[in-house]
Amino acid sequence: MRFISACAAALMAVTSLTASPALAQQRGEQVQVRLPQSAAPSARQLALSRRYLDLMMTDQFEGVIHQMLGEQMAADQAMQDIPEEDRRFLISLTTELTTDMVPLMITEMVTVYAATFTEEELQALVDFFDTPMGRSIAEKNVLVMPEANRAVMTVVPQMLEKMASRMCQHYGCTPAELQELRRSMREEAGMETGAPPAPRSK
């Protein structure tokens, strides 16, 4: 039973990690903009794309992933029943496997970037990020991910509150059903069910 719970926790950890807006931005995911179709990328575009992505995936990546996983597990109510020893193991394992996947991720992303950016644009990216200033910015882009993720999460309670209210307006919920919906949505988001929603900005 403990093994099954640990497996479920690991799956949730990976899912929440890859859904993180900051990480998704780093991996180039969740962008719904339709890009213009172009001819097959040249060998130079592919080479420049790989160099650019290699520059963006800095040495700090593994430590940042470990920190984000720890914070997400600590905030997730479903993780509270997992023994501390198991949580530490899952964080370490998921961090290791995610980091090991980076070369494969880069390989899959190379053709996407090569097909999107021109040779001149890719060269400009490489020229900048291969400078001391560019490398510093790339490193800080990775290091800021946990804080950026926390900043994004501060507005989630407001979004859930509005979503619950709008759904109940649409479907005609009773006050009790609205309260239950709010509770369920906060639980699914891994938030404290007893905590009041964040104040709305004026």
Walk me through this protein's architecture.
Mean pLDDT is 77; it is low at 1-31 and 194-202. Helix content is 73%, strand content 0%. By secondary structure, it is mainly alpha-helical. It has 10 helices and no strands.
Alpha plus pi helix count: 10
Shape: extended
The number of strands is 0
Beta-strand share of residues: under 5%
List keywords for this structure.
202 residues, mainly alpha, 10 helices, disordered N terminus, disordered C terminus
In short, what is this structure?
The protein has 202 residues and is mainly α. It has helices spanning 2-18, 21-27, 43-56, 61-75, 84-116, 119-129, 132-143, 145-153, 156-171, 175-188. It contains 10 helices and no strands.
Write the layout of secondary structure elements.
Elements: H1 2-18, H2 21-27, H3 43-56, H4 61-75, H5 84-116, H6 119-129, H7 132-143, H8 145-153, H9 156-171, H10 175-188
